[in-house]
Design goal:
By secondary structure, the chain is α/β, with parallel strands linked by helices. The chain has 14 helices and 19 strands. Helix content is 30%, strand content 23%. Strands 1, 2, 3, 4, 5, 16, 17, 18 and 19 form a 9-stranded mixed sheet that branches. It has a 5-stranded parallel sheet with strand order 9-10-13-14-15. A 3-stranded parallel sheet has the order 6-7-8, with helices on both faces. A hairpin with a 2-residue loop joins strand 17 and strand 18.
Length: 436
């Protein structure tokens, strides 16, 4: 039997909302005990986490790993390496690959590549429609048996309300969450940033907040009709948050996630025409940011998800109108989340909940917990570690982030998956890891 003791750390339990000095004992890749150190007598290799936080491995429910088809942007191996460097042990990857993940064959390919990487756990998300074309439902059952955990046409709004209704009904049969990219493509039209005074001043075509809000309202009505489960991806407007809050108050199966970039940045980030600030949905106003933060605090928004979207430099370093949408985020989400704690938006247990048990529960995956018997996916965080985001040093293949150069405090210094150390910040001194 192999044993590991993660000793002397402060264990943050997002369910109990506690932070307590405890040791975590791992036996054969699973949590065997979480108790005061003097109550654990077993001999074990020891990882000294003194001065650090010990939390369940983080879960990111919205990631683009690009493989198959776009390996020049990211691969499953490089994306998983970026994940564990950010303290993320479980990622759910979207279906907009080439070929699209709309069949069991592509689902199995992703899982095989993930197993070869021997890093973060990868959970595929299947397409709602064949080829993301929005006309014919994909085979949810076949993909579910192969290993998908949700369905989404993320990146492409489902404009056909009848198809969305059928998707919600069909997904119920397999207990699958439908994750929606909520933008009315007709109203968004060719908009490249938020519509408002800033877009007028910059001379850029705008996409109104209503493009998102109309689709959120439509799909909440469809949830009420079908009894399905809807998850609003990358929610970005105050009115969307209010509608989701009201729907949840009525007991409807509606959930939402927010991205770090929508929680920190406004449309003013576009002022220098930096392609790294081009998103879909776009960055909104300060009032929208404050509403998202309030929704995160009161639980309306159950998950922080990065929408990690790697792009080649040529796809970002071009005219703003032509730049691709998206940002990489796996290696920066934790540090930015801890900044939310420092700013008083949420407390530490709530942040950990939004980055662990919240997304795990929505996807129905065995993650986000340090309960005895659970897989030993553990993240060790040095809350005092000060560091500067340096895109050039990312483990991701891509560098597209508007956060480059930001100063943060708090960083993952060790990441364990199934009890195996898959990432260690070797700049930490003295080394935390010692043999017993």
């Amino acid at each position: 039997m192999t044993r590991l003791r993660i000793a002397n750390g402060t264990v943050v339990d997002p369910m109990a909302r506690t932070a307590t000095r405890l040791d975590v004992l791992v036996e054969d890749g699973r949590i065997a005990a979480v108790e005061p150190g003097d109550q654990i007598a077993a001999e074990a290799e020891t990882y000294d986490a003194r001065g650090c936080l010990v939390v369940p491995g983080l879960v990111d429910m919205h990631v683009h790993l690009r493989e198959p088809g776009y390996e020049y942007k990211e691969t499953i191996a490089t994306g998983a390496a970026a994940a564990v460097a950010g303290g993320v042990t479980s990622v759910a990857c979207m279906a907009n690959t080439n070929p699209v993940n709309d069949s069991s064959a592509v689902t199995r390919f992703i899982l095989e590549r993930a197993a070869e990487a021997r890093s973060a756990r990868v959970y595929p998300i299947g397409a709602v429609s064949v080829g993301l074309a929005g006309t014919q439902l994909a085979e949810f059952g076949e993909m579910r048996r192969a290993g998908i955990v949700a369905v989404s046409d993320d990146g492409v709004p489902i404009m056909d309300a009848g198809l969305m209704r059928r998707a919600l009904e069909y997904a119920k049969l397999f207990d699958l969450l439908v994750i929606a990219h909520e933008e009315d493509a007709c109203l968004r039209c060719d908009g490249v940033m938020n519509e408002g005074l800033t877009s007028v001043r910059l001379g850029l075509r705008g996409s109104p907040a209503a493009a998102e809000e109309l689709m959120v309202a439509r799909d909440i009505a469809l949830v009420e009709l079908t009894g399905g489960r809807l998850h609003v991806a990358h929610v970005s407007t105050a009115r969307s948050v209010a509608m989701i809050r009201e729907a949840r108050g009525r007991g409807l199966g509606v959930s939402a996630e927010a991205t770090p970039h929508h929680l920190f940045l406004t449309e003013e980030a576009v002022a220098e025409y930096d392609g790294n600030a081009k998103m879909a949905p776009p960055l909104r106003t300060r009032a929208d940011v404050e509403a998202l933060r309030a929704g995160l605090a009161d639980g309306t928004i159950e998950a922080i998800a990065t929408d990690h979207a790697p792009h080649h430099p040529d796809e970002k370093d071009c005219e703003f109108d032509q730049a691709a949408n998206g940002i990489v985020g796996l290696e920066t989400a934790l540090g930015l989340g801890l900044r939310l704690v420092a700013e008083g938006v949420v407390d530490l247990p709530a942040l950990v909940a939004r980055m662990t048990v919240g997304p795990a529960r929505l996807l129905g995956i065995p993650a986000g917990t340090l309960a005895v018997g659970a897989a030993a996916d553990v993240t060790v965080i040095d809350p005092e570690r000060r560091w500067k985001i340096a895109a050039r040093s990312f483990r991701s293949k891509s560098r597209n982030t508007p956060f480059d150069g930001w100063d943060l405090q708090g960083k993952a210094v060790a990441t364990f998956v199934g009890g195996a150390l898959v990432y260690e910040d070797r700049t930490t001194a003295p080394p935390l890891r010692v043999a017993s």
